[in-house]
Amino acid sequence: MPRIPVKRASDGGPVLKLFYRIAGKRYGAVPEPTAVVAHHRGLLRTTIAHEMMAEKASKHLPANVRELAVYRVATRIGCSWCVDFGTMLQRHDGLDIDRLKHIDEYETSPLFTRQERLALALADAMSGPTVTVTDEQIAELVAEFGEKGVVELTYQIGLENSRARMNSALGIVDQGFTSGDACRVPIP
C-alpha cells in the first residue's frame, strides 16, 4: 500500500472520473502513481500532459532500445511498480519480455543487440548515486543514434529516474500489470 493512499474516483470530480475510466480501458487498471498524484490537481494535469507529450514525441529511437533503457532504470532504482508496468508495455509493443530476466547480463548476453547494449550502458551511467556518463559514451551514442536519438534516450532515462524515485519514495509497489487483471487488457 502506498504511503499516501490512492485517490478514489468517487472522491473526485467528473474530470478525474473520466481520466480513471480512460486509464482503466488503456491499461486495465488506473496506475497507482497517477492515483496518488491525483491528490494534487495541478500536478495531476501536469503529469498527464507531460506523459502524453513525451510518449508522442519519443518516436525517433527504435521502441526496443527506448523501452529497454527505461526498464533498466527501473531495475537499477528498484522500483517494482515501474518494472511491472514497463514489462506490460513491452509485451504490448510486441517486444521479447523473456530476455528481461537477463537484463543484468546485457553486456555479454547475445540476447541484446549492440544498440541495446549502448542504451543500457547509458541507463546504468545515469541511474546510480552519481552520474558517470563520459564524453566518449555520448560520442558513441551520437554515432549510432544521431543527436536527436541521444537527446530522446537521455530524456527518457532521466524521466524514468524521476518516476522510479518518486514511486519508491511514496511506497508505490508493483500493481499486477504482468500477472493480474491488467494483463487481460487486449494488446493494441
Automatic annotation (TrEMBL):
Domain of life: Bacteria
Domain Carboxymuconolactone decarboxylase-like: residue ranges: 53-124
Signal peptide from the UniProt entry: none
Pfam family, one: CMD
SUPFAM superfamilies: AhpD-like (SSF69118)
Molecular function, one GO term: peroxiredoxin activity
Protein name: AhpD family alkylhydroperoxidase
